[in-house]
Amino acid sequence: MSGNGKKWACIRRKELFTGKIGLKIRKRINMWYYLIGSAFILSLSLSAVSVWAVMKLAKRWNIIDKPSDRKIHRQSKPLLGGVAIYFTFMVVILAYLIGLYLFQHQEWFIRYWGTFMHLLPQVQTALPKLFTILVGATIVFVLGIIDDIRGENFPYQWKFLGQFIAAFTLILGGVQTNFMPGNLLDYVITVCWVVGITNAFNLIDNMDGLATGVAAIATSLLVILTYQQAQFFNTFIFTVFLGSLLGFLPYNLYPSKIFMGDAGSMFIGFVLGVLTVTTSYVTSGSPTFVPVVMPLIILGVPIFDTLSVIIIRLREKRPIFVGDQNHFSHRLVKLGMRQSEAVVFIYIVSLCVGLGALMLPTAEIWECILILAQAVLVFGLITFLMHISKSRRLQQHMFKKPEKVDENSSS
Questions:
Q1: Which pLDDT does position 347 carry in this prediction?
Q2: Quick one: pLDDT band at residue 17, thresholds 50, 70, 90?
Q3: pLDDT digits 0-9 by tens, 336-361
Q4: Cα 231 to Cα 246: distance, rounded to the nearest angstrom
Q5: HEC states along the chain?
Q6: Segment 177-185 mean pLDDT
Q7: Average pLDDT score over the chain
Q8: Cα 333–373–336 angle (5° rounding)?
Q9: Residue 29 to residue 118: CA distance in whole angstroms
Q10: pLDDT tens track for 351-406
Q11: Rounded to whole angstroms, how far apart are CA atoms 127 and 132?
Q12: What is the pLDDT of residue 225?
């Protein structure tokens, strides 16, 4: 490049950051960060305060999770932590939407937030589907509340019926996958996916902080993905959801002060299941269609745990809806890890697998194969660890020394 060319390039770069164009770019970027940042801080703060209030109510109303043979905790703890997550998510989403509707024509709003007026058509288009999602999530949440209150007296058939009703509500509202638009197969895939992820998070909620942390990691990755692909409305929804989860997480980490209950775990699973359906993964610049499997990878840990537990129960000819301690997290503890260590290990697995998935939208076919192979190898390693855990338990049982009898004790 000639001297004049270099000089001109420097001037253009300087204008980009200091001129009128740069001012507009910085303003748009800054205002976007203000919107996302304010939504995150508000949801995080409201969730943390709500958890504290819900703990008091759960103790007062005696909505407590008591220890049992199929549970790992040994102390009774209040449930209803999911109420705080649900309440925060709904309040923050509705507050921003109502504020946008009420103030969109106000001069002060246009002056400070006018940068986002170009998003109004996107918001207006998404509102009917968002309303459907909130209705479906509320159905699942209420179902979970009933389950938390009634406990084991609540038949699992009713739980499944409610989940399918919530999933069919999505279909009526136009929320579905787009593999073959208008095709019956799309409806079936959507319903099965949402119900499956709902139950996957319900099942993985078996240790302090596990389900919440895995959901927070998955949501963080989806925030990055939707932001990169300019799916700004989805980014906003995911950010609010992330704040709701992180506000609850400190109360739920080992040793936990409160459990989210079925209301929380099913709500989390439902929201992630639905939002992964409404998110686009293949862009105009994607070299392949492989990115459509991104939800499977990002949510790979709860999916893998659910499938492995179902296979074990079927192999042992036990009911698949009766809980046990054959989950991946339980097997890590049986290998010698402490509960907190097992949870952190699963966090790391979720993050490592999910980070690889973020590269799929721009990856060539051979790069996609490597990323998918990495995910398969990680879950293969997990399967190997689970097999070792089972083998060691069998050996300990077979070679366990008989207890000595005190001959001086009375018969």
A1: 97
A2: very low
A3: 889 999 999 999 999 999 999 999 99
A4: 22
A5: CCHHHHHHHHHHHHHHHHCHHHHHHHHHHHHHHHHHHHHHHHHHHHHHHHHHHHHHHHHHCCCEECCCCCCCCCCCEECCHHHHHHHHHHHHHHHHHHHHHHHCCCHHHHHHHHHHHHHHHHHHHHHHHHHHHHHHHHHHHHHHHHHHHHHHHCCHHHHHHHHHHHHHHHHHCCCCCCCCCCCHHHHHHHHHHHHHHHHHHHHHCCCCCHHHHHHHHHHHHHHHHHHHCCCHHHHHHHHHHHHHHHHHHHHHCCCCCCCCHHHHHHHHHHHHHHHHHHCCCCCCCCCCCHHHHHHHHHCHHHHHHHHHHHHHHHHCCCCCCCCCCCCHHHHHHHCCCCHHHHHHHHHHHHHHHHHHHCCHHHCCHHHHHHHHHHHHHHHHHHHHHHHHHHHHHHHHHHCCCCCCCCCCCCC
A6: 74
A7: 83
A8: 10
A9: 14
A10: 999 999 999 998 999 999 999 999 999 999 888 877 776 666 555 655 554 444 34
A11: 9
A12: 95
User: pLDDT tens digits for 261-279?
Assistant: 999 999 999 999 999 999 9
Query: Quick check: 146 and 82 in contact, CB under 8 A?
Result: no
Tell me if 264 sits within 8 A of 86, measured CB to CB.
yes
